[in-house]
Write a structure and sequence with these properties.
By secondary structure, this protein is α+β, with helices and mostly antiparallel strands. Helix content is 23%, strand content 47%. It contains two helices and six strands. The chain has helices at residues 2-22, 80-83, and strands at residues 28-38, 44-49, 56-70, 73-75, 89-96, 100-107.
Length: 108
Amino acid sequence: MKGFAILLSFFAVFCLVAASGFAADSPMKTVTGKVSHVDPQGKAIVVTVGSGKDMMDVGAIVEPDTKLMAGGKNTAISGLNETVKDGDTVTLEYMVTDNIYAKEIKKK
């Protein structure tokens, strides 16, 4: 439960940043960073990007149509927890609408 509360706080912070103009151009964004949290049910992911005072956590909702690639191969999103672990480097493509939705996760 504590992890879920942390994840929700990441979403809130990111939504505030997005509302201030960070996501004003296009609803699709891409970041590369280290995974800091994968929801135990595989329904959300948090990626830490940047460093120092430029560091930011990007949290995204994972849906059944989110694409997952590992080692250059498509992998079932249902296996997110087995494929992606905290500390892994990933590229996260996400869409910003009323929430932040993961469209594709590529494990390096």
